[in-house]
Amino acid sequence: MSRTTTQSISYNASGSLTFVFGDSVSVMEGDSVTLNTDVTEIHKDDDILWKYGAEKSLIAKMNKKKQNFSTFDVPDGRFRDRLKLDHQTGSLTITHTTTEHTGVYQLEISGAKKSSKTFNVSVYARLPVPVIISNSSQCSSSSSNCSLVCSSVVNVSDATLSWYAGISVLSSISVCDLSISLSLPLEVEYQDKNTYSCVLNNPISNQTTHLDINTLCHTCAVPPVSVSLIELISVAVGSLLIVVAVIGIFCLCRKRKKSVQTQEKDMNNSALCKPTRRKKLVCLFLSSSVTLHNVLHHHQIVHCISLSLPLEVEYQDKNTYSCVLNNPISNQTTHLDINTLCHTCAVPPVSVSLIVLISAGSLMIVAGFWIFWICRKRRTIDKEGKYYRF
User: Fold this and answer.
1) I need a labelling partner for 66 at 20 to 30 A (CA). Which of 28, 94, 136, 178 fits?
2) Which is more confidently placed, 222 or 323?
3) How many CB atoms lie within 10 A of CB 95?
4) What is the rounded (10 degree) CA torsion for 22, 23, 24, 30?
5) Phi, psi at residue 366, to the nearest 5°?
6) How far lies 293's CA from each of 192, 280, 290, 299, 314, in Å?
7) Residue 106 pLDDT > 70
8) What would the pLDDT profile of 154-182 be if each residue is shown by its tens digit?
9) Can you give the pTM of this predicted structure?
């Protein structure tokens, strides 16, 4: 409760001294307020009257000599069971105040000395806590600013709603009417490190809400991929892998067939392995001019002897290799092309999703066994390299 006092002295028509006092009193709704006469004791001949409002309705009367201590209500009943009169000093107390008790109260004391006093009483409703909400209907993924609104519904006059950055006022709005909804916008950056607060206040109290930027201002999170989309991708990738597996197995079967046919052809047309009347036959693998291996056959006459000589090289070997077949008067040379004959297998791409991996792997295994079983059933090779079909 706050109180300010003014005082003036005047003389009435009979020449008596008159004191006029004035107080401004502010009180919170629900509290009690006491209007003091500022005297320690009332004389027996003094009469005290308390009046309220522009109509000066009598609400209390006191005559100590006659032992008359009375309080009165006004027609609308706003003072019912709320007025208490101090029999010693004549002070008036209003309990359980409401905004309806706002107004002008006048004290008149008559007796040996006449005096009057005016009280301007303001009763303020208790302020609600302001609420801060995000003004955006959805989160922002591109904008650097966050839009906020502080709002409150008040039912008392002289209320002000303000935004503060630390102790500095950024913006404010006031209202004098009753039951007016107040709202005040504010835009801040998402990474702003300042301390912001929204304050609702009247002359005797305030309510503050601090802004939590991390809670109200945030960028959009990436939406989770739906299950249906994952299933669709899994089916598509699985189908593609099945097609690739079928084509790969088909190519392997054809390559195997061509390899067997080539072996048969080499067996039937072995013109290169019939060196007759040669006393000495040597097959050499040469690296530049260095002899790596040799195979010697000491026969007077060699009939259809197949020579083979293995060699292991690294995939990235940069040396020059060649295979030479020679006798004392001639030779035949074949140079090794490592890039053509020696190459690593391509690494299959890793699937993005575990679901894709499981589904694609299962389908590939089933398709592989199925095609392999068909190939084995339809083709067989005997010792002579001939094909039989069932």
Assistant:
1) 94
2) 323
3) 14
4) -140
5) -60, -45
6) 78, 16, 9, 20, 17
7) yes
8) 665 678 999 999 999 999 998 876 567 78
9) 0.48
Average pLDDT over residues 141-154: 81
Rounded to 5°, angle at Cα 311 from 309 and 317: 155
Say which amino acid occupies 84: K
Q: How many residues does the chain have?
A: 390
Q: Token pair of 252, please? A: 């392997």
Q: Return all residues near 17 (Cβ < 8 A) that are at least 6 apart.
A: 9, 11, 113, 114
Nearest C-alpha neighbor of 202 from the set 100, 99, 94: 99
Q: Look-up: residue for tokens 């005290």?
A: 48
Q: Averaged over 90-119, what is the pLDDT?
A: 91
Between 94 and 232, residue with greater pLDDT: 94
C-beta contacts of 364-372 below 8 A and 24+ residues apart: 364/241, 364/242, 364/245, 367/242, 367/245, 367/246, 368/245, 368/249, 371/246, 371/249, 371/250, 372/249
Position 345 pLDDT exceeds 70: no
What's 140's DSSP letter? B
Does residue 247 come out as left (phi exceeding 0), alpha (psi in the -120 to 50 range) or beta? Answer: alpha
Which residue blocks in the chain are alpha helix, DSSP H? 213-216, 227-268, 338-341, 354-378
233 φ/ψ angles, rounded to the nearest 5 degrees: -65, -40
User: Which amino acid, 280?
Assistant: K
Tokens of 214: 């991390």
What does the H/E/C string look like for 289-337? Answer: CEEEEEEEEECCCCCCCCCCCCCCCCCCCCCCEEEEEEECCEEEEEECC
Identity (one letter) of the amino acid at 176? C
The two beta strands, 321-327 and 280-287, are antiparallel
User: In this predicted model, which residue has the larger pLDDT, 129 or 371?
Assistant: 129
Average pLDDT over residues 20-46: 84
